[in-house]
Amino acid sequence: KAGVTQTPRYLIKTRGQQVTLSCSPISGHRSVSWYQQTPGQGLQFLFEYFSETQRNKGNFPGRFSGRQFSNSRSEMNVSTLELGDSALYLCASSLVGQRSSYNSPLHFGNGTRLTVT
Amino acid sequence: QKEVEQDPGPLSVPEGAIVSLNCTYSNSAFQYFMWYRQYSRKGPELLMYTYSSGNKEDGRFTAQVDKSSKYISLFIRDSQPSDSATYLCAIPPGSNAGGTSYGKLTFGQGTILTVHP
What we know:
The complex is a heterodimer.
Chain A: E1 5-7, E2 10-13, E3 19-24, E4 31-38, E5 42-50, E6 53-57, E7 64-68, E8 74-78, E9 87-94, E10 107-108, E11 112-116
Parallel strand pairs in A: 2-11
Antiparallel strand pairs in A: 1-3, 3-8, 4-5, 4-9, 5-6, 7-8, 9-10, 9-11
Chain B: E1 4-6, E2 11-14, E3 19-25, E4 32-38, E5 45-51, E6 54-58, E7 61-66, E8 71-76, E9 85-91, E10 106-107, E11 111-116
Parallel strand pairs in B: 2-11
Antiparallel strand pairs in B: 1-3, 3-8, 4-5, 4-9, 6-7, 7-8, 9-10, 9-11
């Protein structure tokens, strides 16, 4: 069974540009979450989608947005990039988005490494 | 004060040593506690999870929760070089009802562990 796939693996962008990252969840998984990982702040929750609806949102500015498609694939977009947006962006999927998913943990992809210059 | 605090280390131990990794948390509503392991250039993977207080053992790994002290621990017995990774504690939102999403986790900073032969 294929794991969570994130594309691209590496990305270099310039300040002010925008970027779109893509995530394909494990087949059958309907919940997709996004996280930002930096050495200073660690892993921080960005947002979560379930059945094309945003269920939760972290404490990030409106420049960070996302969406989920009917096939559960998800994209996140960052507009007007800043140097501080340089990070590893991780996508995770789980079977369902309810409490019963306690036994269906988050499965993470290997991330997209974004560098903003 | 962060909701979840974890000493980032780094921690370096010889092969065969017992490793103790710890986190403290501030929200007494937290009920589920997870440990993730992240190898270099990979996404985090779930190691273990526990509910409420007590111990849970899985092979060489033991997870321990002390809710009275808001303290969680992960012990690794007979540590191996292959255990060298970053270990992250993670906690979903406090829940006393169904429908809580486990896509939103609060992570500790992560402890970098190196086990040398």
